[in-house]
Amino acid sequence: MRLQILNVPDCPGAEALDSVLGPLLAARPDIHVVRHVVTTEDEAGRLGMTGSPTILADGRDLFP
Which of 29, 50, 53, 56 is such that its CA lies 20 to 30 A from the CA of 64? Predict the structure, then answer.
């Protein structure tokens, strides 16, 4: 599985998400995580970002 985490710069929610996901993902080497800091509205729209942070699992928003 591929998790893509999208967030705006200095997003406090992204930091909180990392603290929760870190221990869970340590036990799941089969999950590939990609983090991306989004800096423009155009980029957010292109990537499917609906809020900060946005979590996409294999390209699907987990919390649309």
Answer: 29
